[in-house]
Amino acid sequence: MQMNIRSGLKSSIGPEPVVHSSAFRLVCSPSTVQTEPGQDVVLSCAVQPPSDVTAQTVEWTRDADVIVHVYRSRADNQFLQNQQFRGRTVLIHQNLKDGNVSFRLINVTNEDEGNYSCWFPNSEVKSTISLKVVPQMNKETNNHPGSGLSSGAVAVVVLGVVGAFLFVFGILAWKFSLCRRKRDDPAVKKWCYQDFSE
């Protein structure tokens, strides 16, 4: 049986194969990921060259000491996971056979911001991604809060312009109609055909 000093738990599966750091490297990309509070985010990491890591221990930590997700003995270990992350992380086990150790963080909060490291404790292979939580976008304007016009303000401006156009068009149509109907009246004729150049 294997005893893990970090967890104090015994595994009846037997010792994990030791993987030397020269056997593969861990690549996390992109190095910085931005998301908004309330969104889900995937932190992508994979071993290169691709190889089956289903028998390995995979740990995700934040800021080096907060345990975010642990995969050990072919299963997730929620007992080691920080309370803040319980029920909010998903590591897709089927992807481990291809060396993909990416995980999904569900319903991101501002407190989740930090540097996330994925590592294989038996080989000391490690890579880090920085998670930035940005303010939620204003859904009405597609801008940050306080910038730009709301859709209601835009509607008022558009209606004002259309209304002004219709008013001017109505005056011109009325004048044209009056001038056509009373073209024999000298006062109307003068008003209709006055010279604006003077």
UniProtKB/TrEMBL annotation:
Pfam families: V-set. GO terms for biological process: regulation of cytokine production; regulation of leukocyte cell-cell adhesion; regulation of T cell activation; T cell receptor signaling pathway. SMART domains: IG (SM00409), IGv (SM00406). Residues 17-130 form the Ig-like domain. Keywords: Disulfide bond, Glycoprotein, Immunoglobulin domain, Membrane, Signal, Transmembrane, Transmembrane helix. It is found in: Membrane. GO terms for cellular component: external side of plasma membrane. GO terms for molecular function: signaling receptor binding. The chain crosses the membrane at residues 152-174. It comes from the Eukaryota. This is Ig-like domain-containing protein.
